[in-house]
Amino acid sequence: MFTIDANNIQESYMHKIIALVFFMMLMKIDAQTGVAPTGSGTTASPYLVTSWQNLFWISQNPTKWDKHFVQTVDIDFSIATPSIDTWDNGNGWAPIGRDGTAFSGSYDGGNHTIYGLYINRSSDEVGLFGNNSYSSSVKDLRIIDFSITGRQRIGGMVGLLNYGNIINCYASGDVVGDGIIGCLVGGNRGVISNCYSTGSIVGDDAGGLVGFNAPDGVIRNCSTDINISGQLSGGGLVGTNYGLIDKCQASGQVNVDDLSGGLVGFNANGGIITSSMSSALVISIQNGGGLV
After folding, report:
1. Strands 158-161 and 129-132, bridge-based pairing
2. pTM of this prediction?
3. Which residues, 6+ apart, have CB-to-CB distance to 290 below 8 Å?
4. Please, how many CA atoms are within 13 Å of residue 232, restricted to the half-sphere of its CB?
5. 10 Å Cβ neighbour count for 58?
6. Hey, is 46 helix, strand or coil?
């Protein structure tokens, strides 16, 4: 015959409850939280982005990706809690414009900076913005000290620019991927003007500013100072160019086995380059050129 000690059972139950509450508190502390920015997202009353929590909120709300945003302060992801490299099971930042919904609004950086963006994803169209559509605009924004890894169409600012505009922006950081990689933009079908990039790029179809410039892509008044390494098609400004490059320059180093150029790795049929120059060091096994 045995006896049941009700006091012991109650005490054990209370210990479990306390442990569960403590665990839930820890989970709350360790989970990043999005905070809606002030404003209504219109041109007259844009959303005002003042923190990494505001940016995270934008990334988690696809229904807002056609709205208008203005950044009013510098934003530093290195102070995010928890650390950004732990977000989404170690994948880091989830790009604005993904999963079939493009970013079609406008983002005015207000000449402010975003620091410490981290992405490590085995997916395409990766950057602060993943896929930007024809009506999108990003201007007056600096993004520096980023570390981005993806697969195809990878860029520090935008993975794939589809007929949108990027104006007066600066990107500085490290980008690694399989192909179509740029420090600023991975694949471009839009207009990029007055932009500058520095950093390190590893992959194929890799460019210091843009990985792949499509036939309708335009790049004007842009410059780079970048180190690029890969096996195929790397250029100090653009990896592969089918579009227009005008009044641009590149410096740094391009170390690509085949199709390596100081400005453009491979200038394809229809690609136009005007009033541009390169002072980049070019290292190549074959098909290397100081400009193309």
Report:
1. parallel
2. 0.89
3. 261, 262, 278, 282
4. 6
5. 22
6. coil
AA identity, residue 1: M
- How many CA atoms does the CB half-sphere of 36 hold within 13 Å? 8
- Cα–Cα distance measured from residue 171 to residue 125, given in angstroms and rounded to the nearest whole number: 17
Contacts of 212 (CB under 8 A, 6+ apart): 153, 180, 186, 187, 188, 205, 238, 239, 240, 242
Question: What is the model's pLDDT at position 23?
Answer: 38
Whether the pLDDT of residue 22 is over 60: the answer is no
Q: How many other β-carbons are positioned within 10 Å of the β-carbon of residue 94?
A: 17
- Residue 19 is predicted with a pLDDT of 46
Q: How many residues does the chain have?
A: 292
Burial class (CB in 10 A: 0-12, 13-18, 19+), 90: exposed
> Could you tell me the two tokens for 46?
């844009």
Q: What is the pLDDT of residue 12?
A: 53
Give per-residue pLDDT as tens, 266-288: 999 999 999 999 999 999 999 99
CB 99: neighbour CB atoms within 10 A?
Answer: 11
Between CA 267 and CA 23 the distance in angstroms is: 57
pLDDT in tens, 258-268: 999 999 999 99
**Facing residues of 167 across strands?**
139, 193
